[in-house]
Every structure is written in structure tokens, then in C-alpha cells.
Amino acid sequence: MSHVRSRFDKPADELVIKYTTSLPFDWRLYREDIRGSIAHARMLAKQGIIDPEDALAMIKGLVEIELEITDGKFEFKPEMEDIHMAIEARLKAKIGEAAGRLHTARSRNDQVATDLRLYLKDVLTWTIESTKTLQEAFVGLAEKHIGVALPGYTHLQPAQPILLAHHYLAYFEMFQRDRERLADCLERTDVMPLGSGALAGVAYDIDRGFVARELGFRSISRNSLDAVSDRDFVVEFMAAASLAMMHLSRLSEELVIWSGMEFGFIEIDDAYATGSSIMPQKKNPDVAELCRGKTGRVYGHLMGLLTTLKGLPLAYNRDLQEDKEAVFDTADTLLLSLKVAAGMIRTIKVRPDRMLTSVDRSYLLATDLADYLVKKGESFRNAHGIVARLVSHCAKEGKTFPDLALDAYRQFSPLFGEDVFNLGVDTSIDSKDNPGGTARRRVNEAIVAAKELLAES
């Protein structure tokens, strides 16, 4: 019951056994493997393919084996090739030769494909929920800081004033797309391959629909060749995970920058920071940095699997064993990163005074001044040039717009009037009063819409 050697005269080389075994990592599929085997045994008995008493013995034995593994009492023997053979060998030790009938009308090819889909269905469900929790954290912060203004950046240079809530809701949108991608992936993962056999189907009167219902699958696969060799659903998950990690990495980058002394826009909670082994004053954003760093390993798993799959002929090939470690690590990394990020976001301390100071000392109203001149009759291109020269003048004089008198403005355009002093951060923000803009009214609408999206899910 170890490595299958039925037709060979010589045993496998010890290095070959070590090289080919997947038990050190695919043991994580034990729950899914047992679930699939129990449903398969019930179906075989229902169809009269095996004796009902044998099926009952199998099911009882499998339940006991699951408890053994869960309780840490199961012996994972190194000579076992994979989790499927390890469980079958233990079942034989428990119930005798009847265990050999469990593999009737199935192959390890469709068995492992089923296990992996069951596993990913759960992972996708948990990940979707964790993504939603992170979105809720952003909505909560947006509501709490609806009146806080800060510089919006392009090229990491101060550009225009925006609401902090608007900034937070940008991340809500990113993770909304992630959640939709994961849900879309779940639909294509929710297809049962069991019953496809090794590649051609099976020569027994099985009831695939019954097994699908037992296991909670929405549908069954339509082509046996494709079913045992398809790993598109794994690639889709890894691609969706890579995008989600990219968004987490962008968020982490901003948290690192914003928490630095030069910005000081936020303070990361002590529970999500670390100290230095040599510099007592340090408060390092290590959690955000690690989240940023772990993104690379998820990208690597995606590229690794795509490379593995690109040259495979139909149907099953042993290369597909290489998907397990990658998908396990991707799932673990993404799920933990989402949970940690949600906790970090919920506990962030915002410093509105530092944000407002940064707004005041920048030339963030330059675009508003250009728009002001356009509304007075100037063309936008001319207005752009006028304000650009005004900014250059202020920079040379060490002044900002509020420091200028009306005469100074009129040196650059006679269209400037007393009403130019009505321009400010608040008027700039609220002038962006269109769908998707940063005006308070629009951001409040966006918060309501975000809550509705969360409620619908």
C-alpha cells in the first residue's frame, strides 16, 4: 500500500521514494479526502456496486481515521506515497480486505482533483469573508474621519486636497474587486470531477449527481480528460490572490510612508509594530513591511504553476503534484495577511493636524486657481501657465498662496479678484461634487453604497 509497484520486479530506489512522495505536504487534504471517500462509499452501496455492510465499515473506519489525524494520533509512515494511500492503508488495517473495495470506480487522479476542489472551496469562502472584514474596517475609518483633509498624491508629490475618507474608500474598491474575483473563482471551483476515473470515466453504473450533492458541489464535470488534468481553478485562485496581495502591498507601502516621522500622518498601533535590537527609539512598521514582502512569494507561486502547466499533454501527469505546496502557501499567506491588515487598519491612530499642516504648506490649490481663471473667461491652457508662474514666484519667495495679497495675484492675471480669497481646502474638496469625487456629499453617498454592498454579500 506504499508506492504502487505492481508490475515491477525491483523496489523503488530510496531517493526516488523521497523525491516522489507528496505526503509531507498533501496530508493537509485529509479531511477532504475522507469526505470524498465517505460520499463515494455511500454511492457505491446505493448503486449495488459494493455490499452495504462493507460501506458501513468503511465509513465507520474513515470517521475514526479522521479523529486520529485531528487528535495527532495518526502515524504518517514515510513509505506512504500520499495522503490517499496513507488513509487507505490505515483503513485496511482497521477493517481488512473490505477497504480494497473503496477504490472501486475511481482513480487517484479524480480523487485528488476532488480533494483539491473541496479544499479550495473552503479557502475561497474564508478568504472572501476576510476580505469583507477588511473592507468593513475601511468603511469604519471613513465614517470616523469624514471631515479630515489631506494631500492627494500623484508621483508621490502633493497634488490636490482630498478627504481621508475618500482615500480609505479607494482601498474599499480595490478589495471589492478582489472579493468579486474570488467569488467568481469559487463558481468555477465548485465542479466535481469524481467519477472521471483515471482519464476516460469508469465502467460502473455510478451516480455522480448523488456524490456531488453529498459533497455540496454545484455541478459535475463534463469531460473526464479535462476533469483530471484541469488546474485552471488553482491558477485563477493564485491570480486573484496575487492581485489581492498587490493591493495589500500598496496599502502596506502607504502605511510605512505615512507612519514615518517625515509624514507622521498616522501611528501604527503598538500591537502591529516592533522595536529595534539596537536603537531604543525605533518603532518599526514590520507587519506592513512583511505584508509587502510576502506579496513576492505569492507572485512566485503563480508563475511557478503557470510554468508547470504550460507543457502538459492530456490527461493527468505527475507534474500536477507540484500544485499542492504552492496553493497551500498561497492560501495561508493571503488569509493571514488579510486578517492582520484588518486588525492593523482598525487600530490605526490618525493625526489630522499633521495632514492639515501638509495641505497648508503645499500648493494644492493650484488647480483650483486655474479653474477659477477659466470660470472668469480664461482658456484652461493659459490659466495653467499663469498659475504655474505664480507657483514658481511663491517658491522663490518662500511663500504659499495664503501669504499673497491681491496685488501679487494681479501681477500674473488681471482676472484675479477679491473672491480669490474664498478658495480654500474645504471649497476645493467640495467643488469635486460629481459621482466618484471627493466632495463630502459624494463621499457620504459612497459610504452608504459601500455599506449596501457589504450587506448584500
Shape: elongated
Task: Give helix and strand order, one letter per element, not per position.
Answer: HHHHHHEEHEHEHHEHHEHHHHHH
**Spatial order of the strands forming the largest sheet:** 1-2
Cα-to-Cα separation, first versus last residue: 46 Å
Helix content bin: 55-70%
In what range is the share of β-strand residues? under 5%
pLDDT < 50 runs, ≥5 residues: none
3D architecture notes:
By secondary structure, the chain is mainly alpha-helical. Helix content is 61%, strand content 5%. The protein contains 18 helices and six strands. It has helices at residues 14-20, 23-26, 30-46, 52-70, 83-95, 108-144, 164-189, 208-215, 224-229, 232-259, 286-309, 323-346, 352-360, 366-375, 380-397, 406-410, 425-431, 440-456; strands at residues 149-154, 157-163, 191-192, 219-220, 266-267, 349-350. The protein has a two-stranded antiparallel sheet with strand order 1-2. α8 links the parallel β3 (191-192) and β4 (219-220). The model has no long low-confidence stretch (mean pLDDT 95).
